[in-house]
């Protein structure tokens, strides 16, 4: 971590879980965009810090979802399908 950094921008994450979640769960994932690609739900958006990321992953666990991947990308970078 750089010393002297005054403002840290949120990192952008793409989280994939098995199954297609109903849109009613969107609010539970803190405003991340949610889409289904076949039988995979893709959650993507900015995450303010590591504590928030762990909170999102705890929700995946609490819903007993199968985690496929967690990827940190530059905001605006196209995701791999």
Q: N-to-C SSE series? A: EEEHE
| Sequence stretches where pLDDT stays below 50 over 5 or more residues | none
Evaluate the radius of gyration: 13 Å
Count of DSSP E strands? 4
Give a nutshell description of this structure.
The protein is α+β, with helices and mostly antiparallel strands and 81 residues long. The chain has one helix at residues 50-62, and strands spanning 11-18, 33-37, 40-47, 67-73.
Could you explain the architecture of this structure?
There is one protein chain. The protein is built from 1 helix and 4 strands. The chain has 81 residues and is α+β, with helices and mostly antiparallel strands. It has one domain (11-73): Alpha-Beta Plaits, CATH 3.30.70. Strands 2-3-1-4 form a 4-stranded antiparallel beta sheet, with helices on one face. Strand 2 (33-37) and strand 3 (40-47) form a beta hairpin. The protein starts with 10 loop residues before the first strand and ends in an 8-residue tail after the last strand.
